[in-house]
Write a structure and sequence with these properties.
- The protein is α/β, with parallel strands linked by helices.
- 41% of the residues lie in helices and 14% in strands.
- β6 (228-229), α11 and β7 form a beta-alpha-beta unit.
- α4 (66-76) packs parallel to α7 (128-138) and α12 runs parallel beside α13.
């Protein structure tokens, strides 16, 4: 960690609400979403010259399988905190994916989606993944919170697949979400995997019914309302807050928000620990990172431990950012094996250094913060 990064990490952690408890939260985005369907599809797209290897998401990320979940759970069950609780991964999940056949049947004139239960059934032919999910929820090993209805901006994605560009047409034909961000026809070079990004007022307003539909689907899917929210790519407008609040969302996981300015650009908004908006929704910050898939050669364990030490020094929970892609093995078993080995090492290292650690999920962190801020 260089000096500039060290100063920035301290700046994020010294401001706002604090606690004497050593809380650890792992926030993991993208669960439930499709990306690259299989290694066979990856190889086919690469053979056509589509640069799928340039992004670690298209290289390693795919819909979670039963084996992915079981291997992750095995690592998590190897550790307990001072209260006897397992590490908890907050799985920020979408609840729907594009229905490729229905979109094709409409001659690409309208968007259609399928619920994630239907996606699991289409991919794997059974409900085993969702049944395993429920086991993880019951033990708070993998506890879902709302990430969006689907992991695409419907307008931008539909425009991309209608564009006639080979890359997007092949992505659709292979039922892959590429999001490689190099489309010449885009209004601006934005990644259509940012579900709540927008440029026009019409696009902006269209996101409200999508958000409400997604929040209701989340409750139907998992049997409870999501208390917290993080938008894909951290891109969203504040105008969504009222809808989120009315549907039970009390906490924003990521205080560092990118807000569309309506002109094709993004404005950075910083909120800190314990900040509230007009609806009383609380903000906190992710202040540590564990992303082995991004760079397998980097020392993620040592780096994350240093970030945790800074957080605890200022009385802040360690909120670790770690995307689903790290734990997926359908495209590369080596990717999953390496990440799980490092996760095991990280959990072992943090418990040795701080035996009084407490593992919480994001909703539990929010409830604790809210209670202490009364």
């Amino acid at each position: 960690m260089n000096f500039k990064t060290y100063i920035a990490k301290n700046y994020v952690n010294f401001r706002g609400w604090s606690t004497k408890r050593k809380i650890v939260v792992i926030e993991s985005d993208d669960w439930g979403s499709i990306r690259m369907p299989s290694k066979k599809v990856y190889d086919a797209l690469e053979a056509q010259g589509i640069p799928v290897g340039k992004s670690y998401f298209t290289k390693y990320d795919s819909l979670e399988s039963q084996e992915d979940l079981e291997q992750l759970f095995a690592v998590l069950r190897s550790f307990t905190d001072k209260n006897g609780n397992y590490p908890s991964i907050t799985a920020n999940a979408v609840v729907a994916n594009p229905n490729f056949e229905a979109i094709r049947d409409s001659n690409f004139s309208s968007y259609h989606y399928e619920k994630i239960e239907e996606t699991y059934l289409r991919y794997y032919g059974n409900t085993n993944v969702f049944d395993t999910w429920k086991e993880g929820i019951a033990g708070r090993l993998l506890y879902p919170q709302f990430h969006g209805r689907e992991h695409i901006g419907v307008w931008e994605w539909m425009n991309a697949i209608r564009s006639g560009e080979t890359q997007e047409q092949q992505g659709f034909e292979h039922q892959a979400i590429l999001g490689l961000g190099n489309r010449k026809s885009a209004t601006r070079q934005k990644d259509y995997t940012a579900a709540f990004d927008y440029v026009t007022d019409e696009e902006k307003l269209s996101l409200l019914p999508i958000l409400e539909d997604g929040l209701q689907l989340f409750e139907q899917t998992f049997g409870f309302k999501s208390k917290s929210f993080i938008a894909p790519s951290a891109i969203r407008g504040d105008y969504l807050d009222e809808c989120l609040f009315k549907n039970g969302v009390s906490y924003h996981q990521l205080g560092q928000q990118l807000e569309p300015n309506g002109k094709g650009g993004l404005h950075l908004k910083d909120r800190f620990w314990g900040d509230k908006n007009e609806f009383g929704q609380l903000y906190w910050r992710r202040n540590a990172t564990f992303e082995p898939s991004r760079n397998p050669d980097f020392d993620w364990v040592n780096s994350c431990m240093k970030e945790m030490a800074i957080a605890f020094r200022w009385g802040k929970p360690a909120v670790i950012n770690s995307h689903r892609v790290n734990f997926m093995g359908s495209l590369s078993e080596e990717n999953r094996r390496n990440s799980l080995y490092l996760l095991d090492l990280l959990l072992k290292s943090m418990l040795q250094k701080w035996p009084d650690i407490e593992f919480l999920s994001s909703d539990e962190l929010g409830d604790y913060m809210a209670a202490t801020l009364l």
